[in-house]
Amino acid sequence: MKQFNLKALLVATTLTAILASCSKDKTPTPEIPAAERAGIYVLNEGGFRSNNSTLTYYDFASKAIIPNIFSVTNAGAELGDTGNDVQVYGSKMYIVVNYSSTIEVVNPKTAKSIKQIELRDAGVGRQPRIIVFNKNKAFISTYDGKVAVLDTASLAVEKFINVGRNPEQMVIANGKLYVANSGGLDSFTAIGPDKTVSVIDLATLTETKKIEVGLNPINIAADAYGDVYVISYGTDYPAKPVLTIINNSTDVVKSSASIDAGYAADFVVNGDLAYYITDAGKVKVYDVKTDVVSKENFISDGTALVLPYALAIDSTTGELFVTDAVSYGSNGALYAFDKTGKKEYSFTVGINPGSIAFVNK
């Protein structure tokens, strides 16, 4: 289980999950020219309230590793406390630093700071979690029950949208933003966790409804077949989480079933397949077209991971990148596997490597 208040929640809670099966009609998607990758960033959370988040960069051509590139590039400045998400969008990279309540906007080719955005309400940190993008807007979930709307040109926050309690991951599908409302900070109180997904109309930037799912939803993803996937963790981890599938045309729940995902394990969709980490240290492959597990472990060469923590798929090569937290208190590692599941290389990263981003040439 992940360290208190790191990538998943500021609370250890848990799960009961879902797998279902039905045929789907794929929505055609336009062909996009393959990008040429320059390298990969790993955002290391550090320890909660330890103020030691770091950003590791690995250059694909030179094989050079820069362990704390943000500090190196920015005259010794540090990221802050609990880096939670990193994403490249357009000509900028956005680093969400949860407990420091900041968004660091940097040049993705150099990690040079462009602007630091503070997210506070009357001096109290909003605790941002996840960032996603649509056109010229960035959407940031914040633990005070809001989604911040940021203009990606001016880098100004334009508004806050009310959602549920302690929102976590978000995904955009069918002109809507789906927000997993965890309520994780209330998991061990009389109130209990939230159990909803907020639906935000991207045209009006308003919440239109809430969809009931399992208790403590954290992870959310979408496929090209019109489905949104939500993993909820309940309050009795390591009992199995629940995977809820929502039709994004009707916003009606299609199915709910248990899934053996590890705590706050990302559900990463790439084409017809999704990937997620289990408590047993495996990376399972799930077919989103048929809604069944198609492979018990993507890793095919026997490579063993201690505490697999985050994963990402490079859609241009089919490579899978998995971080290993090792002990939650020491430096972790990143492993690269080819599209057949064989290890290509690995290298040391920082403490609790929780998010991965690719940068193009």
TrEMBL record:
<dbReference type="InterPro" id="IPR015943">
    <property type="entry name" value="WD40/YVTN_repeat-like_dom_sf"/>
</dbReference>
<keyword id="KW-0732">Signal</keyword>
<dbReference type="InterPro" id="IPR031815">
    <property type="entry name" value="DUF5074"/>
</dbReference>
<dbReference type="Pfam" id="PF16819">
    <property type="entry name" value="DUF5074"/>
</dbReference>
<feature type="signal peptide">
    <location>
        <begin position="1"/>
        <end position="23"/>
    </location>
</feature>
<dbReference type="InterPro" id="IPR051200">
    <property type="entry name" value="Host-pathogen_enzymatic-act"/>
</dbReference>
<protein>
    <recommendedName>
        <fullName>Cell surface protein</fullName>
    </recommendedName>
</protein>
